[in-house]
Amino acid sequence: MKTLLVLGHGYSATALARRLLPLGWSVIGTTRSRAQALRAEGVTPLIWPGDLGPALACATHILASAAPDAGGDPFLQAAGSQIATARPEWVGYLSTTVVYGDHQGAWVDEDTPVAPQNARGTQRVLAEQQWLATGLPVHIFRLAGIYGPGRGPFEKLRNGTARRILKPGQVFSRIHVEDIAATLMASMTHPNPGRVYNVCDDEPAPPEDIISFAADMLGLPPPPAVDFDQAEMTPMARSFYSDSKRVRNDRIKSELGVHLAYPGYRQALEAILRAES
Question: What is the 3-state secondary structure (H, E, C) of the chain?
Answer without folding.
Answer: CCEEEEECCCHHHHHHHHHHHHHCCEEEEEECCCHHHHHHCCCEEEECCCCCHHHHHHCCEEEECCCCECCECHHHHHHHHHHHHCCCCEEEEEEEHHHHCCCCCCEECCCCCCCCCCHHHHHHHHHHHHHHCCCCCEEEEEECEEEECCECCHHHHHHCCCCEEECCCCCECEEEHHHHHHHHHHHHHCCCCCCEEEECCCCCECHHHHHHHHHHHCCCCCCCEEEHHHCCCCHHHHHHCCCCCEECCHHHHHCCCCCCCCCCHHHHHHHHHHHHC
